[in-house]
TrEMBL record, chain A:
Cofactor(s) the protein requires to work: [4Fe-4S] cluster
Domain of life: Bacteria
A GO biological-process term: thiamine biosynthetic process
Molecular function GO labels: 4 iron, 4 sulfur cluster binding; iron ion binding; short-chain fatty acyl-CoA dehydrogenase activity
Pfam families according to UniProt: BATS, Radical_SAM
Gene source species: Peptoclostridium acidaminophilum DSM 3953
Name of the protein in question: 2-iminoacetate synthase ThiH
Gene3D superfamilies in the record: Aldolase class I
Residue stretches making up the Radical SAM core domain: 70-299
SMART domains: BATS (SM00876)
EC number: 1.3.8.1
Keyword annotations of the record: 4Fe-4S, Iron, Iron-sulfur, Metal-binding, Oxidoreductase, S-adenosyl-L-methionine
Organism ancestry: Bacteria, Bacillati, Bacillota, Clostridia, Peptostreptococcales
UniProtKB/TrEMBL annotation, chain B:
Pathway participation: Cofactor biosynthesis; thiamine diphosphate biosynthesis
Domain Thiazole synthase ThiG: 5-248
Membership in a protein family: Belongs to the ThiG family.
Protein EC: 2.8.1.10
PANTHER family, per the entry: THIAZOLE SYNTHASE (PTHR34266)
Gene: thiG
Summary of the function given for this chain in its UniProt record: Catalyzes the rearrangement of 1-deoxy-D-xylulose 5-phosphate (DXP) to produce the thiazole phosphate moiety of thiamine. Sulfur is provided by the thiocarboxylate moiety of the carrier protein ThiS. In vitro, sulfur can be provided by H(2)S.
Molecular functions per Gene Ontology: lyase activity; thiazole synthase activity
Binding-site positions, 1-deoxy-D-xylulose 5-phosphate: G157, A183, G184, N205, T206
GO cellular component terms given for this protein: cytoplasm
Subcellular location: Cytoplasm
Protein's UniProt name: Thiazole synthase
Highest taxon listed in the record's lineage: Bacteria
Length: 367, 258
């Protein structure tokens, strides 16, 4: 069985009918229960549940404290190549965009690592555009070996790899994989992925499962909120996380909530997600899956991010640069997207401490 | 109150403290002092030896016994490697084996825990295995060389108290080594209950770390552990299905001359 069968099972489901049928009383009953079913989770994403946000927040805060305590793990992305052969309507790395392209050498990667590690960051997320020619698995694995000399944890967000490649990567010390489905709605997915290997919906959808099968320590999933109806996308993200956690209990599954941001190129059909709606998504997810780590990136503003800490966010990117070579500043390129929270790692730490939480730099190491 | 003898040492405090989940590292020394604990567990995966200001070890008083745990280990092999790393980093010979391969409920894997205990005890570690409260597993862990066992009261972080009370009671009765109740203890009353039952010690983290005043809560746990231990050594009165009056209704039957 693949998660595709789960997605397919909801193909004809009347989401709008269900969501509009949820009333305040049903939400109250759900919030009084310890266990949240799949349909309860969807109900918590309904318009009616928005009237219970404070109650949801109180419960989410308690669950988050019990499971993660007053600690927020910090990490930073490191972009090592922005060559990409996909034409994705929403992405700055789109093959058709006339941006300067660069692929770092191992020496340049080491320089980036040295500069980034000076900020205190110990967990790093290695990113590339999708190009098997410019950033094949061997290049990524070699780069991760360089990064491991400077960081305790190296995870990757690169083009979907084969099972064998993930096995090799895990054995080489890469301990996590992030892969966003972007859009779980298959029609929207087809519409926004104009051409390139990423157009293969099924191969991408099965990627997190391949990473789990390869014994990766952690796997992070999410949808790019703004491409399609946020309620359905948030629901399917939860279903995906739940499917993986049930099937691969020893893998730490986490979720992210990226909202579409300005970037090089134009995507006209953004389906907006308000701050309230994003908060509702985060709270519903915490109540549905109390043990799952929740991650918010510098796509969001500093104030908004800080306010999310007590609600259940326990992973933060900090001091992020989304340009290839951006930390060492040598011939920097255009960013993948514009970041909103441009604070330094030190400033982010101060903000976390001011909220009564502890910034955590290290939560794993290679053993 | 009597000292706890474990792994060849004597401890004056029967409260062990966890170091995760605190709002800041600065809180730790105050909590340790307030609790009176002599044994503190740390997740090795969170020890950052590269930066002194960020190294949790520098916040723990020197006279405290470090109990590094293998949090993050998914099998015996990983737990063994983490324990060896801890010793190599100067954390001493104590180790709390924590093997969790279930990220949904965070329950320990007794089988893998036993394998790791066997290997590490043979290497001279003083092993305290965190375990599901199962008597047969506890006996095997003792045979493998553990210096005590750490059955869970309820799943980690739930604060639900002694949900496994019956099974923990059997372990306390049958295992001759120290039994330290770990996980699930969410209130000082839970800790007192465990001690009243005859547990040798309790380990508390979430309930102290996530309270509004961790220093005060640490004190509350310290007092509760002492109260429970006193109650245990004083021996609790027998439980009865029926009321037992101080002045029995049939007392007159024993009066002289009747």
């Amino acid at each position: 069985m693949s998660f595709y069968e789960v997605v397919s099972g909801y193909k004809d489901f009347d989401f709008n009918g269900f969501l509009s049928s949820v009333n305040s009383e049903r939400v109250r009953v759900i919030l009084s229960n310890d266990k949240i079913s799949d349909m309860d989770f969807l109900a918590l994403l309904s318009p009616a549940a928005q009237g219970h946000l404070e109650h949801m927040a109180e419960k989410a805060r308690r669950l988050s404290l019990n499971h993660f305590g007053k600690a927020v793990l910090l990490y930073a992305p490191i972009y090592i190549s922005n060559y990409c052969i996909n034409r994705c309507a929403y992405c700055g790395f789109n093959h058709d965009n006339s941006i300067s392209r660069k692929r770092l050498t191992m020496e340049e990667i080491e320089q980036e690592a040295i500069e980034l590690s000076k900020t205190g960051i110990r967990h790093v997320l290695l990113l590339t555009g999708e190009s098997k020619k410019h950033s094949p698995a061997d290049y990524i694995i070699e780069a991760s070996r360089v990064l491991r000399r400077h960081f305790d944890s190296v995870t990757i967000e690169v083009s979907p790899l084969t099972l064998e490649e993930y096995v090799h990567a895990a054995k080489s010390g890469i301990d996590g994989v992030t892969v966003y489905q972007e859009a779980y709605d298959e029609e929207v997915y087809d519409e926004v992925h104009l051409s390139g290997p990423k157009k293969d919906y099924r191969f991408r959808l099965d990627t997190p499962e391949r990473a789990c099968r390869a014994n990766m320590r952690s796997v992070n999933v999410g949808a790019l909120l703004g491409l399609s109806d946020w309620r359905r996308e948030a629901f399917m993200t939860g279903m995906h996380a739940n499917y993986l956690q049930d099937k691969y209990p020893s893998t730490e599954i986490s979720v992210s909530f990226p909202r579409i941001r300005p970037h090089a190129g134009v995507f006209e059909k953004v389906s907006g997600v308000s701050d309230i709606q994003l908060v509702q998504t985060i709270l519903a997810m915490r109540l549905f899956m109390p043990h799952v780590s929740q991650n918010i990136s510098t796509r969001e503003t500093a104030t908004f991010r800080d306010n999310l800490i007590p609600l259940g966010i326990n992973k933060f990117s900090a001091g992020s640069c989304t340009e290839v070579g951006g930390y060492s500043g040598a011939q920097a390129t255009e960013a993948q997207f514009e970041i909103s929270d441009g604070r330094s790692v030190g400033d982010v730490c101060e903000a976390i401490l001011a909220r009564g939480y502890q910034p955590l730099f290290k939560n794993w190491m290679s053993i | 109150m009597g000292k706890l003898k474990i792994g060849g040492i004597e401890l004056g405090s029967r409260l062990f403290i966890g170091t995760g989940k605190y709002p800041s590292k600065d809180t730790l020394p105050k909590v340790i002092e307030s609790s009176g604990t002599q044994m503190v567990t740390i997740a090795l995966r969170r020890v950052d030896a590269t930066r002194n200001e960020n190294n949790i070890l520098s916040y723990i008083p020197k006279d405290t016994i470090l109990l590094p745990n293998t949090s993050g280990a998914r099998n015996a092999d990983e737990a063994v490697r983490i324990a060896r790393l801890a010793r190599a980093m100067g954390c001493g010979d104590w180790v709390k084996i924590e093997v969790i391969s279930d990220n949904k409920y965070l329950l320990p894997d007794n089988e893998e825990t036993l394998k790791a205990t066997d290997i590490l005890a043979n290497e001279g570690f003083k092993v305290l295995p965190y375990m599901n409260p199962d008597l047969m597993s506890a006996k095997k862990l003792v045979d493998a060389g553990a210096v005590g066992v750490m059955p869970l009261g309820a799943p980690i972080g739930t604060n639900r108290g002694l949900r496994m009370k019956e099974l923990i009671g059997i372990i306390i009765e049958e295992i001759k080594l120290p039994v330290i109740v770990d996980a699930g203890i969410g209130a000082p009353s839970h800790a007192a209950e465990a001690m009243e039952m005859g547990a040798d010690a309790v380990l508390v983290n979430t309930a102290i770390a996530t309270s509004d005043d961790p220093v005060k809560m640490a004190k509350a746990f310290s007092l509760a552990v002492k109260a429970g231990r006193y109650a245990c050594t004083a021996r609790l009165g027998a439980k009865s299905e029926v009321a037992s009056a101080s002045s029995p209704l049939t007392g007159f039957l024993h009066e002289e001359g009747f």
